[in-house]
Amino acid sequence: MKPTDAHAVPHRMDRTGERGSAYVAVLVVLVVLTIFGLALALITQTEMLVGSNEKTISRVFYVADSGIEIATARVLVTSDHRARVYTMTDSGGLLTGRVKLGTRVDVSPFYPIFDAPCNLCEINNAGSYNERAFRKIIHAVTVDAARFAALQDGSNETPVAQKTLSAMIEIQPWRASPEAYSAVQNQAELDRIRF
Hints:
alpha+beta; 195 residues; 5-stranded antiparallel beta sheet
């Protein structure tokens, strides 16, 4: 038997209902990729803000630490135990003309909190130093550091980051200084030292 023409030609399906389905699939993929790209952009922007904040906080921490070092050096070199405030403003930058950025370092008095004979000081036991004027003295100091933003005229000063550090510093052999105890007379100055 000979196959008929109906059996010889394969049957073709009508695909008019599937027309444009590739277009819809491509659109769905593009929408998913767009959402994924926007999510990555948002995550990147957030990470950049976090990194910027960490940089500012680290900067303020190191400025406060430098304030302790400045107070220690001032006592060792000039025997100056008084409180100081240092203000530094940034120059240049993107916001020049409208906003100024700066750092303020508020150093408390470098106050002796413990004064004892220096039992390890060989210098106390011999020669012309036998009056035992040299002592072991532990000092306390607190530094408040702040990064701020303000308008050029100085108004609307806003703190951006703040850090407070306190330290106890032992110096021996050291000759006691009456000026170092002047903070005791002023309770407000003494209250600035915190532990």
